[in-house]
Amino acid sequence: MSSAPPPPAIPVVCALIVAASGHVLVAQRPAHKHLGLKWEFPGGKVEPGESPAAAIAREIQEELGATILVGRALPTFTHDYASHQIEMIPFVCQLAAGSPAPHPREHAALRWVTSSEIRLLDLAAADWPVVNAYWPA
Ligand SMILES: Nc1nc2c([nH]c(=O)n2[C@@H]2O[C@H](COP(=O)(O)OP(=O)(O)OP(=O)(O)O)[C@@H](O)[C@H]2O)c(=O)[nH]1
């Protein structure tokens, strides 16, 4: 008997929103969600038929009430959590309008960080390759 193939990886977009100072915005997941209280880059799942660039602009508008300019893409990769696999699709972005404010259901807190500060945070496991791609060690 052969086992069923694993479900495909879930495409997830995330934004490294870079300020003029070079600080990057990170957000803390709420306690009740998968990876509760871990820090991550804001973003979320790509909806069917949506391009990754459109998905990240939508997610940031929904989660933070801000409009972004979507810039270059960083390398994509898959990450295996025990319960599911995600395809991470990171973009380097800038704020176009609005001041990011956390949506209470989406994030517990926001923080602007440097490359050394982000390495001290309890990040979601899938975010480390993103950190290392943007700020090579
Ligand atoms: N947004 C985001 N999700 C991440 C990151 N790193 C990471 O492992 N994930 C995982 O990717 C998946 C995306 O989930 P999400 O909860 O942010 O997405 P969403 O808002 O569209 O979904 P939902 O409406 O089902 O809650 C989760 O399994 C989450 O834990 C990251 O940096 N940003």
UniProtKB/TrEMBL annotation:
Name of the protein in its database record: 8-oxo-dGTP diphosphatase
One Pfam entry name: NUDIX
Cofactor: Mg(2+)
Record field: transmembrane: none
Family annotation (InterPro entries): MutT-like (IPR047127), Nudix_hydrolase (IPR020476), NUDIX_hydrolase-like_dom_sf (IPR015797), NUDIX_hydrolase_CS (IPR020084), NUDIX_hydrolase_dom (IPR000086)
Family of this protein: Belongs to the Nudix hydrolase family.
Entry EC number(s): 3.6.1.55
Keyword Metal-binding attributed: yes
Lineage top rank: taxon: Bacteria
GO molecular function: 8-oxo-7,8-dihydrodeoxyguanosine triphosphate pyrophosphatase activity; 8-oxo-7,8-dihydroguanosine triphosphate pyrophosphatase activity; 8-oxo-dGDP phosphatase activity; 8-oxo-GDP phosphatase activity; metal ion binding
